[in-house]
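tool=predict chain=A
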Amino acid sequence: MSDHIKGLLELVDNSLSVDGANVKVLDANKFRMNIGKLVERSALASDSTAGWSRYLIRAAALELGVYPASIHDLYMARGRGEAPMTFTTPAFNLRALSFHAACAMFHAANKINAGAFIFELARSEMSYTAQRPSEYATNILAAAVAEGFVGPVFIQGDHFQVSAKRYMADPEAEMQAVRDLSIEAIAAGFFNIDVDTSTLVDIHLPTVEAQQALNSKLSAELSTFIRSHEPAGVTISIGGEIGEVGTTNSTEPELRAYMDAYNVEMKKLAPGKPGLSKISVLTGTSHGGTVLADGSLAEVTIAFDVLRDLSRVGRSEYGMGGTVQHGASTVAEENFNKFVQNEAIEVHLATNFATMFYDNIPTDLKDEMYAWLDVNSAGDRKPGMTDEQFYYKSRKNAIGAFKAKSYALPEEAKEKLGKAWEAQFDKLFNLLGMKDTKQYTDKFIKPVKVSPKLADYVKEEVAAEDVSDLAD
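tool=predict ok
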């Protein structure tokens, strides 16, 4: 055994043993208490101990009953009317201190026996948060272990999106970039992937069918690729999207045009393989919301009837779980139960948790991060922008650059932040009907324990890419 591995085992008080690639948990309680040390090594180390830390956590989590899973079968049960429409699954993008945020989330879930919730990371976020899929999945699985959560954990690739600009320049290279990312994510335990080629919808074409044709075709191609790389026994939950968030509200003809062409293409490319479990639609929101000159957010008006009507079409005619709402962090809290009332299967939340990070960290760190943005994100400062608008728009860019300093915060600062996040999770879980949803994940999600491959973890890091034109 190398000194590297011995050092990692000492970090967790020798609560694990390693024999080659085989990992055993010798003392579960001791491991839970010390797992955060491996998480920090995973996040900050620049040598092979980062990969080994991730591998140890994933293998040990599996032994403790924590396993990455696909939510596909639950969503399809909803499509068949076998699961009730009493909840909307929240999908959270945890950008800063994601292990600590996930601990707060699992703690909130355990209090109410919640099971149907998702952790997600977008292609764009991987760069500015400095989290590749294996690091993010490690943070989530480690948090489940730390909080004593047992069962399926849903980790999702959000907006695995094709850049329209790069696609026009070199279609095959851009498609290959999304394929490569999908392989990387699946290896890390992302068994839920939202394919997003909606950037290529061309509203200038004469018919809705023509507008959606390329979106449908490429969605089916990526779906087929994902299906061909699924671990044995896993049906990855794949989501599609019919228009870029922040543009005009979706319509039923758009949904039908996209789904009809998608299904025809899937029958050609992957006969007999499942298609989509859900579809993202546009209802009046935008990612991050619109910030006004004084720093407050513009009021958001959501077309809830679009969610409801398109969910019903998706379920009754295409067998899916229903529609997905993106960009909901800025929706007024009193409206969150309307997602449930209007039969949305899933709602995506990110911005508010980044806001809470900045609101709760020590002032000196926040000032340092804002000073960094003045220099490194100066290009985001448009004419007429106030400081409040500039920092709100650009502050996500500082998260990765200050990852080490975030980990180095005093424990009391991290504890304050965790409590604030947990209170927010408590509220949202209540509004979205999460109480006792573990009964549905237990009923419909078949445990498939996919063993990690050491070669997927101990290898060179993937270089960051330019994602400035992609959605979060």
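The first strand starts at residue 16 and ends at 19. The two ends are 41 Å apart (CA to CA).
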